[in-house]
Amino acid sequence: MHETSASHAAHQHTAPTSFIRKHVFSLDHKVIGKQYYGLALLAVFIGMGLSWLMRLHLGWPAWPIPLLDKLSAVGAPSGVMTPEYYLSLMTMHGTIMVFFVLTNAPFAAFGNYFLPIQIGAEDMAFPRFNMMSFWTTFMAFLVMMAAFFVTDGPPISGWTAYAPLSAVGGDAGPGLKVGQTLWAISIAIFCIGSLLGALNFIATTLDLRTKGMSLARMPYCSWAWFVTSVIALLAFAVLLPACILLILDRTAGTSFFIPAGLVLSDKLQPHSGGSPLLWQHLFWFFGHPEVYIAILPSIGIVCHILPVFARKPLLGPRATVGCMIAIGFLSYMVWGHHMFVSGMNPFSATLFSVPTLFITVPATILTLLLLGSVYGAKMRFTSASLFCLGFISVFISGGISGFFLAQPSIDIYLHATYFVVAHFHFVMAVASLFGVFAGTYFWFPKMTGRMMNEALGKLHFWLTFIGVYAIFMPMHYLGLAGNVRRYSAFVDDYLIPLIPVHKFITIAALLTGAAQFIFLFNLIWSRFKGPIASENPWEATSLEWSTATPPPFDNFGGKHMVVYNGPNEYGVESRDGKDFIMQTSPEKAPAS
Amino acid sequence: MGKLFAVAVIVITLISVSFFVMHTWWMPVDISTTGPAIDHQLEETMTGSGLLFLAGQLVLGLFVWQASNKNPARKIKMFPGGASPLVAAAIILVGIEILTLTFVGTKAWGAVNLAPAAADSLHIDVQAEQFAFYFRYAGPDGQFGGLHPDKIDDGSGNYFGLDPANDVAARDDVVVGSLVIPVNRPILLSLHSKDVGHSFYVPELRIQQDFVPGIEIPVHFTATQTGKFEIVCTQLCGLGHYNMKAYLQVMSEPDYEQWLKSQEGQ
Description:
The complex is a heterodimer.
Chain A: H1 4-11, H2 19-24, H3 29-59, H4 68-71, H5 83-118, H6 127-146, H7 178-207, H8 220-251, E1 263-264, E2 267-268, H9 276-310, H10 317-330, H11 347-374, H12 383-405, H13 408-414, H14 418-448, H15 454-480, H16 499-529
Antiparallel strand pairs in A: 1-2
Chain B: H1 2-22, H2 35-67, H3 83-113, E1 122-129, E2 132-137, E3 174-176, E4 179-182, E5 186-193, E6 198-202, E7 207-211, E8 217-222, E9 227-232, E10 245-251, H4 253-264
Parallel strand pairs in B: 1-5, 4-10
Antiparallel strand pairs in B: 1-2, 2-3, 5-8, 6-7, 9-10
Helix pairs in contact in B: 1-2, 2-3
């Protein structure tokens, strides 16, 4: 691992001068990281806007929503949503959030910007691939957005696109003609971008670590990005062919996912021999690891940031990395827990249930280690550290409900109810986004050279933290009462009494969503008007804080960094009277 | 700020838990023979997980409260014993909980999905389509007619694709829009779909099972109470998904026989 100086030489390149090469088609991992962040930011506000529309409709279905008829005159005549338009918005919300936000922000955006810097490299292993990854992902985003503007509207089959609804075309309903095809093409393109990115992350981590940066000294978020990239490589490699088969079923008359004898719109469909369950197996073989693609980078980010503000080392660094690897490994054995009631062999339910429950072991260890790291700390309460602490809370809340859904005997009642919606939003979406918020408040100074406004950051935290509990905790109660998800209105006798709970959730969602504009304002305002940041404003140890703010084009201004310590040297007494020792400091850290 | 965080976490936790404890929103009454085991499993999990939830959040609140102490002379403290006891505790405690839940839960799951239907079950055929359920009884001959997808015609009420002209067994099949069953008698449903995926969910029966186009899926249960309950679709099936429902009517045996006769007479 110490032959890295040769590979460094091979990757040296000079800073571009033209606007296009500097800011648009840039090979610089830092610019690409910011591009991914920008795309995720755009996507998250679109996704959130869609959830606002959905929640408004669920709370007050008859209310006309201003300007909605301008977006789709057919989908929302006079501003009142049709049932199919609700499903379209729901499909787009899930797809945009899972792929373009939860995969892009914590993994591709921060990973691109900080992985090379944290391991002392000048760039990614394959800068051209890197540029291609982003622009491929961007193209996927454009194709997905195009689905809003086709005549039959966006698809209505959910982000899981279960066949044969997603495969048989327009006979199954609106949105299933061009919209669904665009969805499948977009996701296939997204897979290509993600595969290129994952390969790049793996090669960079293994080959470009600087002198002294052994795997054991790698910061936890670099570890998380590395493990995530291995998961992504295997997961997207399955989703890509699945999407190609879906496109073929839709456009070339094949029948991979469509059996014989289906009658839709009074027409016997010209297909035979396919299996709808095949799509579910392929989709969830990707889909479950995708949960960890979303959450592991945020776990890594929190493990990286929490010690900085706790002023003490992370408890059990090796166990932390071991747990990340264990979670990544187990994530490939559990996809069937999404399919307990799907009609697959019921004996396999136990087979999938046991490893699913076993994932709670490394997840519990991680939680306990984070709690143990807070114990006895001299906590500095900043926006970043508050979001780390908030992460621990929502990760506990979201993880615990997994105990229910992992058991087939309980899932048979709770499957496809709001209990599931509560579970995955807490553990995958909210926890992951809390990691992204923590990362943003923490790294913004390094990325832009300016500090964010702490008062606004804390206000953002409080409104978001209380808000997400107000939105998602009641969904557990709805699920227990048997409230089915993916309904555009509640007309069943037993669901009508639950509508007041939905109204409460809608109000909470609107307020919590509004609080995100404080974050957006802070981001933009601080970019131009924030106080100038020093090289190491948080007194952190890792390599990104050993270089200029913002880092120069080659990251370290021509210096080859040498690493002497791990990232965990907090709460020590250094020679210069500080309570931390930089990774690059030749001062030997005392044995802990 | 730390103390405020601690208070917020504890208040949120206590409010959240109280609604679970009070059963403000809870499962409807159970009306099946297999339901009590499922309810028991859920309640056991609720107690175990609820305690973990409570403990996790309260400990977080407590540690953050302590960590916010601004005394400059205070030194950081490492967790007593380091990481190893926590790792061991997680493996042992969670491991035991997992094995127990799996051992007990498999029985509850098995009663619904692994045990064969009773030999004397009343067999009812179920067809799901966008956006309705149809139920078929074999009629006096006890035989179901064959299914011919090419003969499906909703306009003339041939939802299953029967061919009474050429198929004697199909002539007396009774097709209705509600699932009517006798109480305390084992029921065997055969689920199949005309078009896309659907699901059969009756919260009171604690049963949920997808319809998968191309395959026939058996479901069996015994209802223990008479009454009228909703059957709803839980698998996204298109624009009318939210409105796809039918009723389950559980009757006394004589009422059921009378109902069946009246249907056969039509």
